[in-house]
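New to this. Please check both lines:
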Amino acid sequence: MKWLFRILFNAVIVLVLSYLLPGIDVDSFWSAVIVAIVLGFLNALLKPFLIIITIPITILSFGLFLLVINAFIILFADNLITGFSVNGFWWALLFSLILSFFNSVIDKEQKNNEFK
């Protein structure tokens, strides 16, 4: 049930960010749900591989290169989904930063609720 909540939460955040950020466009709520699902799969399958092959540059950048990996995953999702578009790397970077922030907040809340 947590995964369903997570997908719906991410879909709402994607939709809200598309209204707030002029470089992000989402056609509908269902497109936002698809974006949330695809980003979940890409983060689970592609991101670990990218992290492994970029370990040297990630170490040299003190981990900041992970932000670049997140932005490229967003841009890759843009190419896969027709109802979702990102107008460049910087919008993808900002989008991924904000989305990651909200995901970390929800992770913290879920962990706090498990210990109560």
Summary: The chain has a mean pLDDT of 92. The two ends are 19 Å apart (CA to CA).
